[in-house]
Design goal:
Elements lengths: L2 H4 L1 H6 L5 H8 L6 H13 L24 E4 L8 H4 L7 H12 L20 E4 L13 H18 L5 E5 L1 H13 L16 E4 L8 E6 L4 H5 L5 H15 L4
Parallel strand pairs: 1-2, 1-3, 3-5
Antiparallel strand pairs: 4-5
Length: about 250
Amino acid sequence: MDEAEAGFPAYRAARCTSVAELDGAVTGCRACPRLVAWREEVAVVRRAAFRDEEYWARPVPGFGPADAPLAVVGLAPAAHGGNRTGRMFTGDDAGDFLFAALYAAGLASQPTATGRGDGLELYGVRITAPVHCAPPENRPTPAERDTCRPWLAAELALLAPGLRAVVVLGAFGWQALWPVLAAAGWRLPRPRPAFRHGGLVTLPGGDGRGPLHVLGCYHPSRRNTFTGRLTAPMLTEVLERGARLARGAG
């Protein structure tokens, strides 16, 4: 691996002074050879339903306002979802489930998301992930997760002055988030809390930032939603709770 490419996230992310600058920088990352090869291969082979579309095939930046008090953290873009559309959780079943719940919670302008030009707006919430490239079988390696970590750490640090709550979708995101929060300046509990749906951990504030409420939620994957492990009311309830905490309403 080229050393300059491998070190790009750590070098570049820390130097971004705005969320917009960070979003632009992350799209040029080529630090993980396996992920670069996969995202670009998928864009060439394509799925039959999308054979006439031009895939994004780059790292997918976060989506939502730069002053959002609530963040939603997933896992990684889907090969034919975010990797195709260029927007987090857009263009796949998990995204359809999530955006419908965001709309029901009053956090989105519409219940559907099809692409970057669909007019969708988020209200007070920003969606991001610990890994910004689509991984094979939706499974990034620990090394890929760690290489990508500076992007999310920088994003949360830039959001920190107004960030009050984070909803974490799934155990992978939950485990990946704690070292990211530490890197972004929050003090973590010991031992680190185990993931559970509806679980709440509150990190103390300090250094010009308020406390941060971290909520666990099952990931809206096909497996979870088709089996009923995660229902639309369950997801909406967690998002509504996150929004209340973000507003200081408890």
